[in-house]
Specification:
The complex is a heterodimer of chains A (199) and B (85). Helices cover 80% and strands 0% of the residues of chain A. In chain A, helix 2 packs across helix 4. The longest helix of chain A is centred in the C-terminal third of the chain and has 45 residues. Chain B has one domain: Orthogonal Bundle (Arc Repressor Mutant, subunit A). With 85 residues, chain B is an all-alpha fold. Chain B is built from 4 helices and no strands. The longest helix of chain B is centred in the C-terminal third of the chain and has 29 residues. The chains are: A mainly alpha (199), B mainly alpha (85).
Chain lengths: 199, 85
């Protein structure tokens, strides 16, 4: 693939896209959010292809690591530009980065539902278990410190954490099933409706 | 096409182990060494199941953090006394 990209063979680029598009999208979205994601992915591929053609990738078998390095630098560049543009709030060249980064409504709805589930999990736990989770996830205390302060063994700590996660997953699946059931019954009702009207 | 190439590259790359849940959570919490982060990020570029694991872990950690913050705030807010009691 690398040889074909170097030789400007379109099948090389096609394969590069095929292998890495989803991974690069995921990485960039996770680091920078969904805004202008298509453009950022496109820029990443252009940078990768150009640097391969320049001969920057000396060992083709290291392509995966190389791609990751390029996109990490790209992320650092975007973050640097955002920091700089916030410093010079009036710089028009960086207008896009200054835009409000509110999540889209669908993403926000999912986040709200997840927060509600997590709250349900925390509220149903004994006070002590809840304290463990608050210390770990919110205060970012180390497991060692939590165990020491609260007189827990490492196993008790792990169990508390894994039980909470299992409960969260269970509630999430139940919600998903209810939602699916609701959607299916709504579809069935829509299908039945014309027949009912006809009869 | 992509599958063959992915396999070929995964074979050529030392990072071919899948993430376990603990590693995914540590990654979400930013608690891994720089070296481990490089390994994981390189791996999930071409591994859908590990991307899903990381996405699920990110969502869980963010939700727990938010809920824990709300709970803490609620616990720290002094309760109002009901008048006359």
């Amino acid at each position: 693939m690398v040889a074909r990209i170097r030789a400007d063979d379109p099948s090389g680029m096609e394969e590069l896209y095929g292998v890495f598009t989803t991974g690069i999208r995921f990485y960039l979205c996770r680091q920078l959010g969904p805004q202008d994601l298509d453009d950022k992915v496109h820029d990443a591929f252009i940078t990768i292809a150009q640097s391969i053609r320049r001969g920057d990738l000396r060992e083709p078998e290291r392509l995966m690591g190389y791609v990751r390095t390029v996109i990490r630098r790209q992320v650092a560049g975007y973050i640097g530009a955002a920091v700089e543009s916030r410093r010079n709030m009036v710089d028009p060249d960086h207008g896009a980065i200054l835009r409000d980064r509110k999540p889209d409504p669908e993403r926000k709805a999912i986040e709200d539902q997840n927060n509600a589930l997590a709250m349900r999990v925390l509220n149903t736990l004994p006070r002590r278990d809840r304290e463990v989770l608050v210390r770990f996830y919110l205060q970012e205390q180390t497991p060692d410190r939590i165990c020491r302060d609260m007189g827990l063994t490492a196993t008790q700590f792990r169990l508390t954490k894994s039980r909470a996660k299992a409960r969260f997953t269970e509630l999430g699946q139940a919600r998903f099933a209810r939602h699916k059931g609701f959607a299916a019954s709504a579809t069935a009702k829509r299908k039945e409706a014309p027949e009912a009207r006809a009869s | 096409m992509a599958c063959g190439a992915q396999l070929e590259m995964a074979m050529a790359n030392p990072v071919e182990r899948h993430l376990d849940e603990e590693a995914a959570e540590k990654y979400s919490l930013g608690q891994l060494s720089a070296r481990k982060v490089v390994e994981i990020e390189t791996h999930f570029l071409v591994c859908e199941s590990c991307r899903q694991k990381v996405a699920a872990s990110d969502a869980y950690v963010a939700a727990m953090r938010n809920a824990a913050a709300k709970l803490r705030k609620k616990e720290q807010t002094p309760r109002r006394r009901v008048a006359g009691k």
